[in-house]
Write a structure and sequence with these properties.
The structure holds 2 protein chains of 2 kinds.
Chain A lengths: L1 H6 L4 H21 L9 H11 L13 H16 L6 E2 L3 H18 L3 H9 L3 H22 L8 E2 L7 H14 L15 H18 L3 H11 L3 H20 L16 H17 L4 H9 L3 H19 L11 H20 L5
Antiparallel strand pairs in A: 1-2
Helix pairs in contact in A: 2-9, 2-11, 3-14, 4-8, 4-9, 4-13, 5-12, 5-14, 5-15, 6-7, 6-11, 7-10, 7-12, 10-11, 12-15, 13-14
Chain B lengths: L5 H25 L14 H19 L3 H14 L14 H16 L8 H12 L5
The chains are: A mainly alpha, B mainly alpha.
Chain lengths: ~350, ~140
């Protein structure tokens, strides 16, 4: 059955099993020490890694997350072994870079990527649910433009060695972490034990590459193609985390007592709506971009580079939200993200 | 939905982009922007001093049994120096504060602790700050 899961992940039942496994592993990482609702949060992990490589200097958000390197290496090995490692690029690379940056900033204003929105919702967080509603709204709006001919410029094959940049960088960071240079400092971020985090990251990467697990992608496919298979994975993820939280007593329906969240619901909605809209245009939320980048997609590498720089910038200039609320810099970033993505949607359509 | 295509969709996108740009212009004009202090210092010295003063006031209010007053000052102290609510930081208010906060929350929710309308939001702020986030 495990072989079938990895070899034939296109069937709805297989994607649902993968989604449920994703959810259980993500929820378990919190029990092992990750921050609340942050068993799997690509944007949070990018912020942590940005801090550990000096892109920002807030100790409480700096850690060379083994999960992140595991995701990249797991996806790389899965793509390579399934002969899906194909190096390509040149498809609106600049939009990927800038778009990736704004998607990350939107996540920071909400406090979490779309996967964390699922985790927060499954923990009973009403702000998480509001963000999830915004995400769905943003994806549905983007689908209108996809239906009407929005398309990025076509991708072309590139020399294979270029595709190794991302896995090699992940391996180098992992080696640094193993030798302790990037380990958390006193006062640094909460985290699960290193080996457990790495193993979970490798699973997320490999399973994510095989199953194409993507929250925004599953919404897009359901709305655009009436294909609900990936949606089965997303629903199973949510259900599994909800069941896990109920089992361990971590389900607490609340607005004001959601750990690490703010209660500025309109901006939570707007921020993740921008993320949903933008991620649909550039073909992937932060987690999906990591998987694509590890599979040889150099446009996704540009998106990851944009996200990493934005992660540093978000902390440096105070764009990211805190439980105190959304900052004016955060509001500005969300609005400018909307301007960028709506302009791209308006002008990059064959039918327009 | 079906009617929204072609030129209509372009116009809608441009109108929404213009509205977002206008909003961004307004936030840029009237918003408050300040670069947060990070790194070794993590807090400006004046904020650290203010947070210590607020902590003293909070503890005095607590001794007098004024839960609402204490919570409001603890909140202001944490806002001035967020490390006070960081359980991994040496400046953390401590497990005993964590326990008292959870007792106050239970008391405020159950109506056992009489307090003004701001007490529960202050307590929930401290709770959210203490548990979770990206770090």
């Amino acid at each position: 059955m495990i072989r079938r899961l990895f070899a034939y992940p296109e069937e709805a039942w297989a994607l649902a099993v993968m989604g449920a496994l994703f959810g259980v592993v993500a929820a378990a990482l919190v029990l092992f020490g990750n921050p609340a609702s942050s068993g799997l949060c690509a944007s949070c992990f990018l912020v942590n890694v940005a801090g550990s490589i000096g892109l920002h200097a807030r100790a409480a958000q700096s850690y060379l997350r083994p999960e992140l390197m595991g995701i990249v290496l797991g996806a790389f090995f899965a793509a390579f072994s399934a002969r899906e490692f194909r190096v390509s690029g040149g498809s609106s690379t600049l939009l990927h870079f800038v778009g990736g940056a704004f998607v990350l900033l939107g996540c920071e204003v909400f406090i979490g990527c779309p996967i964390k929105a699922l985790l927060r919702t499954a923990g009973g967080g009403l702000a998480g649910l509001t963000g999830l509603a915004g995400l769905a709204g943003g994806v549905l709006l983007a689908v209108l433009f996809l239906r009407d001919g929005f398309a990025l410029s076509s991708r072309r094959a590139l020399p294979e060695p270029l595709g190794f940049a991302m896995p090699v960088a992940a391996f180098a960071l992992l080696a640094t972490a193993v030798y302790g240079a990037g380990q958390a400092q006193p006062g640094g971020t909460s985290h699960a034990p290193f080996a457990i985090s790495l193993a979970a990251g490798l699973f997320f990467g490999a399973a994510g590459q095989r199953s194409r697990f993507c929250v925004t992608g599953s919404l897009r496919n359901a709305a655009l193609l009436r294909d609900f298979r990936e949606g089965a994975g997303t629903i199973a993820f949510l259900a599994a985390v909800l069941a896990f939280n109920l089992a361990v007593g971590a389900f607490n329906p609340t607005l004001s007592f959601e750990p690490g969240a703010h209660t500025d619901l309109p901006w939570a909605f707007m921020a993740l709506a921008m993320v949903g809209f933008g991620a649909t245009l550039i073909a992937g939320c932060p987690f999906r971009q990591l998987i694509r980048a590890a599979s040889g997609d150099l446009d996704a590498v540009a998106a990851v580079a944009g996200m990493l720089l934005a992660a540093g910038l978000s902390v440096r200039i105070g764009i990211g939200s805190s439980p105190a609320g959304v900052t004016d810099a955060g509001k500005l970033a969300v609005l400018l993200g909307w301007v960028l993505f709506l302009s791209a949607a308006a002008f990059k359509r064959k039918a327009a | 939905m079906g009617a929204l295509e072609g030129r209509k969709l372009t116009v809608m996108a441009l109108l929404l982009a213009a509205a977002a740009a206008a909003g961004a212009g307004r936030v840029g004009a009237v918003g408050h922007f300040s670069v947060p202090v990070t790194g070794e210092a993590a807090c400006a010295p004046e904020d650290v001093a203010r947070s210590l003063s607020l902590l003293v006031q909070a503890r005095e209010a607590e001794r007098r049994g004024e839960v609402a007053g204490a919570l409001s000052r603890y909140r202001a102290a944490v806002a001035a120096d967020p490390r006070l609510a960081d359980r991994k930081d040496p400046r953390f208010l401590g497990p005993s504060f964590e326990r008292r906060l959870n007792e106050w929350i239970a008391g405020l929710k159950g109506g056992r602790i009489p307090a003004g309308t701001s007490a529960l939001p202050d307590a929930s702020y401290l709770f959210r700050r203490m548990y979770g986030g990206c770090g």
